[in-house]
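WARN no homologs supplied; continuing
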Amino acid sequence: MDLFELRREEQLSQEAPLAARMRPRGFSEFVGQEHLIGEGRVLRKAIEADQPPSIIFWGPPGSGKTTIAYIIANVTKSHFSPISAVAAGVADLRRIVEEAKERRGLYGQKTILFIDEIHRFNKAQQDAILPYVEEGTITLIGATTENPSFEVISPLLSRCRVFTLNPLSDEEINLIIRQALEDRERGLGRMKVEVKEEALKHLICMSNGDARVGLNALEMAVLAAEPSDDGKLHLDLSAIEDALQHRALLYDKAGEEHYNLISALHKSLRGSDPDAALYWLGRMLQAGEDPLYVARRLIRFASEDVGMADPQALVVAVVAQQAAHFVGMPEGDLALAQAVVYLATAPKSNSLYKAYSKVGEDIESTRAEPVPLHLRNPATRLMKGLGYGKGYKYPHDFPEHFVTEQYLPQNLKGRRYYEPSDQGFEKEVGKRLKASTS
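OK structure emitted
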């Protein structure tokens, strides 16, 4: 690299966004993903020993996939060749492979090929590097936000270890932002920035586990701020809102307001008010609530408050969760909204909830009787000799495929847990049960 190239690299480094400037250079600066690169973890040991395997890093944006790849570049003695699948093609891959062969033959040096957004490579492009990963000419490190089971061809996937990265926690985002505020070399330390607590909380919340979002919004707010009389840049809530283009709503994902809003949503659903339910859903999602948390609550509601009055409610809730997870936000919000309206307008019954609660009480308070012999499976000759399965009545051998039989333990004989209501489909369930016992 000549003097002009060196100065150009220095200039680009200074002009890079804050998120790029603050990219950790080693494990000591990295925040999060302790399950992968914490002290003593297998992956970290392999990297520090300069023996990283071919890897696919799978995780959400801003969780550290590319950063870990560049830490590997700093630690390893291998040549590091980074490309983006958005811009590179088969010709680039072939060039890198040829250079890797030459490097290995002349100097014995290994080559690490890092492909950012590897899911954007088609099958032909992935096929082009497969034999060279297999023979060890290159060590592949791929980064993807998409499930590699669907986006990476099976032969290539089988030759790589898949490591899953988690979204960064609010505490980890907080630490990263504070590091940027204090770092005088690469961060904002020289600019004397002070961020008010409520503004910092909103920035952390709206980062939603993505460090890049938080750092870029912080930098934009700083660049737009005017120094006060004391020479400092004071960032209040309105400055962060403006940088994020998102109004702060009263919400704390770990505090009282979190539980207040989910309670309001649940009670609106139970009260069959789709308008109120949609409103509370919107309040939670727009304030930065994890959509999968909301989906889990909807699934619970479908069984607890709708139950057998409309068994389809559980199907709708589960499909909404899958849709929100697959599509992501904000597009996934409509799937959750559709589930909310369905649940709010569905007939309600808590008979299933009460029945299972009674079961739990009896399990706690009564003797755990052995399974009656006639209900046991006579899997061996010995079991059959001991009376397993003896006297069992096979319902399909009887009219209407039903026969009266005792299925509960003797000490709970005749106990009724499930009492169907007359709501929706459960009314039909009640008729069936009544017919079977008459």
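The CA atoms of residues 150 and 326 lie 12 Å apart.
OK
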